[in-house]
């Protein structure tokens, strides 16, 4: 929850990511396969301002250059739907958190620590995402556990157990497995199903 002096999480992640993009420049790598920081900035602009995100539209946005794109992102998201309180952090905050980590991790920056705000939104998203992941590995079950001891179980017992800090779990479940600092244990068949 934000205070009067602290902007909402999605805004903080947006501004921090823009700072990092400006610092690294348009050609730095990201964890999004085939995308540079310029590609990612164009994607974020398109995601918030247009209903369709074609390669042609991304090329048009990229042609404007990174400074123009980060300036547009810094200006904030449109009020609808991105500033609706429930949508703001859970959807937009999570999007910026993941993409911020896409840039950080691809450029050798360590995981951020001491950020309960990030852990809170990541854990809320993980609990939703894990349900869909568990359906994909049926008949095996899935347990998601934080290093602090919180856990959620989906499906039958005795399946795969994925453990890590909430942001790391979010990265794993959003397809950034190699960049996440997680432990995957449990039934070998369930583990193999989750890895697939």
Characterise this structure.
This protein has helices at 9-24, 37-49, 55-63, 66-74, 85-106, 116-136, 166-173, 188-195; strands at 142-145, 151-154, 160-163, 183-186. It folds into two domains: 9-106, no CATH class; 116-195, Nonspecific Lipid-transfer Protein, Chain A (2-Layer Sandwich). 54% of the residues lie in helices and 8% in strands. It starts with 8 loop residues before the first helix and ends with a helix. With 196 residues, it is α+β, with helices and mostly antiparallel strands. It has a four-stranded mixed β-sheet with strand order 2-1-3-4. InterPro entries: DinB/YfiT-like, Maleyloyr_isom.
Please trace the helix and strand order, writing H or E for each element. Answer: HHHHHHEEEHEH
Q: Termini distance?
A: 36 Å
Total of domains: 2
Secondary-structure-derived class: alpha+beta
Counted beta strands: 4
Helix content: 40-55%
Biggest pleated-sheet summary: 4 strands, mixed
Radius of gyration from the alpha-carbon trace, in angstroms: 18 Å
Give the helix tally: 8
